[in-house]
Specification:
The complex is a heterodimer of chains A (411) and B (303).
Chain A: H1 2-24, H2 35-42, E1 46-52, H3 56-74, E2 77-83, H4 87-98, E3 109-112, H5 114-122, H6 145-148, E4 149-150, E5 153-154, E6 160-166, E7 168-172, H7 183-192, H8 205-218, H9 231-248, H10 263-271, E8 277-280, H11 285-291, E9 299-302, E10 308-316, H12 324-334, H13 337-344, E11 352-353, H14 362-369, H15 380-384, E12 387-389, H16 393-408
Parallel strand pairs in A: 1-2, 1-3, 10-12
Antiparallel strand pairs in A: 3-10, 4-5, 6-10, 6-11, 7-8, 7-9
Chain B: H1 4-47, H2 62-69, H3 71-108, H4 110-121, H5 124-135, H6 140-147, H7 167-202, H8 207-236, H9 239-244, H10 252-260, H11 268-298
Helix pairs in contact in B: 1-11, 2-11, 3-4, 3-7, 3-8, 4-7, 5-7, 7-8, 8-11, 10-11
The chains are: A alpha/beta (411), B mainly alpha (303).
């Protein structure tokens, strides 16, 4: 029954992707300069790439590897602009648009997705569509719902995928031999083992995605959240979600009287043996923690049988970017097999590739296959066959606000 | 007869003096008025709903009234007040005892001063994390207690962080503020206390009388000022209750942060309105404390 529904959903998404490609192809008129011309124009440009700067691994990858390679290959100077939250840059673009600054903008490239992408798209803050003009786009599987939709918002070539992440459950096989393999089974497990599970309080990103898994579990068909749904359907399913979580609270860590404030705290509780599960929106997180000596060697990860939520993160070019040609060349380089392989190396960053290794020449496929995987990381095939798309950010916000009102404050 | 020019000279000199005083104060004034006042002004403006980037441009007090009328406001206010008042009171009492005990020692050993200065350099955040490591149910103390057989398992350790009575938060503040208040008191005691106490002793005042009529009035201005600073800080501080408090109810600063960092840009004005309310409450506390001190001084209770 469930399988049947999922199959239908896949076919539907395939159709949607095909339709999307049809729309996208005529969107690149003949007047656009060929890629060779873009490369020529990009030479000597300085590309200012604004991104969240909170991860030393990401910063090292961008400032070390990517910057050196684009200089070498294309003569581009790449400057990273680290920010605490890319929403700051989006806010700046809103103001530049209001002030009529349509050219010569300082920001050439931004690392965004989700809510920030939606804000940019709604306010016309993006250059493009440009994604289909990048030669390396041929390695991307645009049929995946988490690629053609960014948190439910059609991408329409306005951003180019860079990498992706997927939720995985984390457990210690020395403690739990047979972890619950679906959201329903997990909820049942929590009821039978009071005080042994916790999730960070939304709007924390990781806590919030747990709530969405429960929401999906209670939805009859998760495919409909990607398309047009009635608000009453959302409200009804959300109500059921709060109901289930309210009833679950007394069985949580500390009887639900308080919640970990961050995934870092949840990981500490897990490592200290106060709780039996952790989860992460990064499939390689557990391996990283083992390498760092924070988790025991016996820690493993798994995905639910019905799948776990995955999202893609993208790069986009602002409408007024001074060096848009250079930015496109950088975006294209980021999708190259070499750059994606480097990024996927657990010692570098360990980020999930945005390209589908199956579309690469055999020797590159082998390199991706031979990447050292941490002891706790699942195979790409296992992960990719269990991916659920993020719902639109509208649903995400509705659930976060509702959780606070109805679960935390019990109103 | 006086030289008429001399008077004019003096006046010009005075005017020049005033002028140069103004010039000398200008950089400091500019920093205070420009950065602090300007920030406050922009804050009030945003709290009143001026946020053109997010499509808000009309000024209104709705955000303030929405914060006021939120059913959680009183709870949060009560919690914040409770934490700030208890932390200040406990730290002040311990500091008075510590300062009295140490005032003799300090003259002999300069190291005492130094030891008390060390905690001042450690950020609150670090202490909060240290407290978490020490007294959480999986912390060091719980493990030691379990290993020593005092409790069955580390999880049996009494709940002292993210707890109902905010014990972890208060402990952090008390640990951090005692050295500060003590140092302020020691400075006063060393300069003024000694001779008066000797006089008291000659007049056969007992220990309590000496404390009540000599020490307390002497140290009170410093104690009051230091306590006020501690109260104002603990009332408005964010990081310690964020880490060691319960998810709900939350203190006002945590509430302000939550609103300000909301994914919905329209919630920002409420965050700022909360912040301004906090600043207003602290200002009110300062004014009240000043008035009380002045009244006490008039009655001769303190110096």
């Amino acid at each position: 029954m469930v399988h049947h529904r999922r199959c239908q959903c896949r076919c539907f998404s395939g159709l949607l992707a095909a339709a999307l490609l049809l729309i996208m192809v005529p969107a690149s008129p003949a007047a656009e300069p060929p890629w060779e011309a873009v490369l020529q124009q990009a030479r000597g440009q300085t590309v200012n790439w604004f991104m969240w700067g909170g991860s030393p691994a990401v910063n090292a990858y961008v400032n070390g590897y990517v910057a050196a390679r684009v200089k070498e290959l294309y003569g581009i100077d790449l400057q990273q602009g680290p920010v605490k939250d890319i929403a700051e840059v989006v806010g700046k673009l809103v103001i530049e648009k209001q002030a009529g600054k349509h050219t010569g903008g300082h920001v050439d490239l931004m690392w965004i997705n989700g809510e920030n992408f939606r804000t940019c798209k709604k306010n016309g803050l993006l250059f493009g569509p440009f994604a289909e003009r990048l030669p390396n786009q041929r390695y991307v599987d645009w049929g995946r719902p988490s690629v053609y939709n960014d948190f439910g918002e059609p991408v329409e070539g306005l951003e180019s995928p860079w990498g992706s992440a997927q939720v995985v459950m984390i457990y210690d096989q020395a403690r739990i031999s047979d972890p619950p393999r679906s959201v329903g089974a997990l909820l049942e497990w929590i009821r039978r083992h009071p005080g042994r599970f916790a999730y960070p309080a939304p709007p924390d990103f990781t806590g919030s995605v747990f709530v969405r898994h429960v929401f999906y579990h209670l939805s009859e068909d998760i495919g409909r959240w990607q398309g047009s749904f009635r608000r009453s359907e959302l409200v009804a399913t959300a109500e059921r979600t709060y109901q289930v979580l309210r009833e679950l609270a007394p069985h949580l860590w500390r009887g639900g009287s308080t919640y970990p404030e961050s995934p870092v705290r949840m990981n500490t509780l897990f490592a200290d043996g106060e709780i039996d599960f952790a989860f992460s929106y990064h499939q390689a997180e557990a391996s990283r923690q083992i390498l760092d000596g924070l988790f025991p060697e016996t820690v493993r990860t798994y995905v639910f049988d019905e799948g776990t939520i995955a999202n893609t993160h993208f790069v986009a070019i602002p409408f007024n970017a001074a060096d848009s040609a250079g930015a496109m060349v950088v975006a294209n380089f980021l999708l190259s097999p070499e750059a994606q392989l480097k990024k996927a190396d657990p010692d570098v960053w360990g980020d999930f590739p945005a390209i589908d290794p199956g579309r690469l020449p055999p020797e590159w496929q082998a390199r991706f296959r031979d990447l050292p995987r941490g002891p706790a990381t699942l195979s790409d095939a296992e992960l990719q066959s269990h991916q659920l798309p993020e719902p639109p950010s509208e649903i995400l916000i509705h659930l976060e606000k509702g959780w606070e009102q109805h679960v935390l404050k019990e109103r | 007869m006086a030289d008429p020019d001399a008077g004019r000279d003096a006046r010009t000199r005075r005017a020049a003096g005033r002028g140069s005083l103004a010039v000398m104060l200008l950089p400091a004034l500019m920093a205070v008025v420009g950065l602090f006042g300007g920030g406050l002004f922009l804050g009030i403006l945003q709290g009143l709903g001026h946020l053109p980037g997010a499509g808000l441009s009309r000024l209104s007090a709705t955000h303030f009234s929405r914060v006021w009328s939120d059913p959680d406001f009183l709870t949060s206010f009560g919690l914040t007040l409770y934490i700030a008042a208890v932390s200040t009171l406990v730290a002040a009492v311990i500091s008075v005892v510590a300062a009295l005990a140490l005032s003799r020692l300090v003259n002999r050993y300069r190291a005492v001063h130094f030891v008390f200065q060390v905690p001042l350099t450690v950020p609150h955040l670090v202490i909060a994390v240290a407290v978490l490591f020490m007294i959480s149910p999986a912390g060091l103390l719980a493990r030691v207690a379990a290993a020593a057989g005092l409790i069955q398992a580390p999880a049996d350790f009494p709940l002292l962080v993210n707890d109902r009575w905010s014990i972890g938060i208060i402990l952090t503040y008390v640990w951090k503020e005692i050295p500060f208040i003590t140092l302020m008191l020691l400075a006063v005691l060393q300069n003024a206390g000694r001779e008066l106490l000797d006089v008291g002793r000659t007049l056969k005042a007992d220990a309590w009388q000496r404390f009540r009529h000599i020490v307390l009035p002497t140290i009170f201005p410093a104690l009051g000022a230091a306590s006020l600073i501690v109260f104002a800080y603990t009332f408005g501080a964010f990081e310690v209750p964020y880490l060691l408090g319960r998810t709900y109810p939350m203190t006002l600063p945590v509430w302000a942060y939550k609103h300000y960092s909301d994914i919905d840009l329209l919630a920002r004005p409420e965050g700022i309105a909360t912040g301004i309310l906090i600043a207003g409450m602290v200002a009110a506390a300062v004014v009240t404390a000043q008035a009380l001190t002045r009244a006490a001084r008039k009655k001769g209770i303190v110096l």
